[in-house]
Write a structure and sequence with these properties.
Shape: globular
Helix content: 10-25%
Distance between the termini: 42 Å
Mean pLDDT: 86
Structural class: mainly beta
Strand content: over 45%
Length: 525
């Protein structure tokens, strides 16, 4: 009975399309609201994230009994928005945001993040959100190595302050936000600075929240069992040196995504994107790319722009075997030659990747115990381009998978929730290609290297070159305090083992954190 009541509440929320707001873009949050969204017969498009709700998620919030306090501000801090004003035609709320973490591996580590969020609605159709964070961090060595090798960019967060990256200490700030206008029952438009995710998996081969925030315009169309997304983004390639601040290379990305629910169990999706950089006239895009109709290549030919951009196309599938068990898949295509695929000669122009996965909710009939297993892969040179401005990246990171290209990966995740207690166990096994020191051959493992430099025509295989093996064990135990901000205490241990032909490293990190967990940061690479 409880399940059907929650489904009814969810349908009511979905039908009430007024002053919609984004949900948290956090896997730990999604995992506990997705079960009823995936039930057979529910007409939801779960691959487009963050989700839009007309009010804050009633299902997740109502699953927690309030923590009592006689002090109103303390009660709000533990259960509600810290400060809020709500009337019939407007609503404003302010919450403190933070991430305080102490940890230990070969050295003492910490994260000291403070910030706030401001959110609300004006009238029945306009909603807004803004947040700001200021950070000091001392992260594990392998993350510091990544930062040093990627233009001083902290994964998913942005560039550390100029000349601040010293002896592993990171100092930076970042913000995100949006304004959303619900035009009518069918159309919704959102302008913001943030991240987007398309897919049902832990990773996405289309677009994920791996890289830093970016300005975007998103138009969502909902008709019958169809959802159509037009996403236009302004991105940047980073040219940054510790002693010289120089961000110069901008680019424009346009994405179309069509999701269709077929019958009660099947969902299919069609994806395409095109990346554009400065042309001979100094323009990073042509107004024709705002065309909402799908398929960009014919458009390019019609305006004499043939082959000026880097285009990707993709296909998504999800099938619900039961209300608690479903299969999902993605296929991304960069370039492809059928004759070479049939001959299996390792032709470099066969650039594609994919994902296969499953999710199982209420495993062994134990409520809120879920299991997810996922395989991801990409062939060498996928997402890259001969013009480095046109690779599929933003702020020195891939827009899709954190490993970029030329990899195969298996992820297994077990999650459990009991009252306010939550537990996550994640196991990752991957093999990733790499360049060989002293060898000028381009093995196609770096999307930031032009694909037409020093490559082998044939004989290219996934994870070729200086192959690296990665194993990650990540266990976390948490206690949710305030579901409005996903505020929690968390303890955990992460063990990372990495090896290639030249080196081997092990890192065991133990930590204790008090945080508002509203977004994903991917350090599992």
């Amino acid at each position: 009975m409880k399940k059907y009541f929650l489904i009814f509440v969810f349908i009511c929320i979905s039908e009430s399309l007024t002053a919609q707001t984004n949900t948290f873009l956090s896997h730990s949050y999604f995992s506990f609201i997705e079960k009823d969204m995936h039930s057979i017969g529910i007409n939801k498009h779960t691959s487009v994230k963050p989700f839009l709700f007309s009010k804050e998620d009633t299902i997740f919030f109502n699953s927690f009994k309030p923590l009592n306090s006689s002090e109103s501000l303390v009660y709000n801090f533990l259960n509600l928005n810290f400060l809020s004003i709500e009337e019939d035609d407007y609503y404003f709320a302010i919450n403190p945001l933070f991430h305080f973490e102490i940890g230990k591996d070969n050295d003492s580590r910490y994260i000291n993040t403070r910030g706030f969020e401001l959110k609300g609605k004006i009238g029945s159709k306009v909603s807004f959100y803004s947040s700001f964070y200021e950070n000091q961090m001392y992260l594990p060595d392998y993350i510091n190595t990544f930062i040093e090798n990627h233009s001083n960019v902290v994964p998913g967060i942005g560039i550390a302050k100029h000349n601040s990256f010293k002896d592993g200490l990171i100092d930076l700030y970042y913000s995100n936000g949006y304004i959303n206008y619900n035009i009518n029952t069918f159309f919704d438009i959102q302008f913001g600075h943030g991240k987007n995710f398309i897919g049902d998996g832990y990773r996405s081969m289309f677009i994920s929240d791996n890289s830093f925030n970016y300005p975007y315009l998103k138009v969502t169309t909902n008709v019958w069992k169809l959802k159509y997304i037009n996403l236009f983004s302004y991105l940047q390639n980073i040219d940054f040196d510790i002693d010289e601040f120089n961000i110069t290379n901008s680019k424009f990305c346009a994405i179309h995504y069509l999701s269709a629910n077929i019958g009660r169990r099947l969902n299919i999706g069609f994806f395409e994107s095109i990346m554009l950089a400065d042309d001979s006239l100094g323009s990073s895009f042509n107004v024709n790319y705002f065309n909402p109709v799908i398929f960009y290549r014919p458009l390019e030919y019609s305006i004499s722009y043939s082959r000026k951009g880097n285009a990707l196309i993709g296909f998504l599938l999800k099938y619900k075997f039961t209300s608690n068990f479903h299969f999902y898949a993605q296929f991304i295509l960069d370039e492809f030659r059928l004759r070479d695929f049939k001959s299996q000669n390792g032709e470099w122009t066969n650039k594609y990747g994919g994902q296969l996965g499953l999710k199982y909710f209420d495993v062994f009939d134990l409520e809120n115990l879920s299991f997810q297993s996922e395989f991801n892969f990409a062939r060498p040179f996928t997402y890259s381009h001969f013009n480095t401005n046109l690779n599929y990246s933003h702020y020195a990171q891939p827009l899709a998978h954190p490993l970029g290209t030329s990899f195969i990966e298996n992820i297994n995740i077990v999650r459990y929730k009991k009252n306010r207690w939550i537990a996550d166990l994640k196991l990752i096994f991957s093999r990733h290609g790499g360049e060989i020191s002293g060898d000028s051959t381009n093995y196609g493992s770096d999307i930031f290297t032009p694909y037409n430099e020093n490559y082998n025509e044939t004989g290219n295989n996934i994870a070729q070159g200086n192959s690296a093996d990665l194993r990650i064990f990540d266990f976390r135990l948490g206690y949710v305090i305030n579901p409005k901000t996903n505020m929690k205490f968390e303890v955990g241990v992460l063990n990372r083992s990495f090896s290639n032909k030249n080196s081997h490293s092990d890192n065991k990190y133990i930590f204790l954190a008090f945080k508002t967990d509203l977004q994903n940061f991917y350090y599992d690479f």
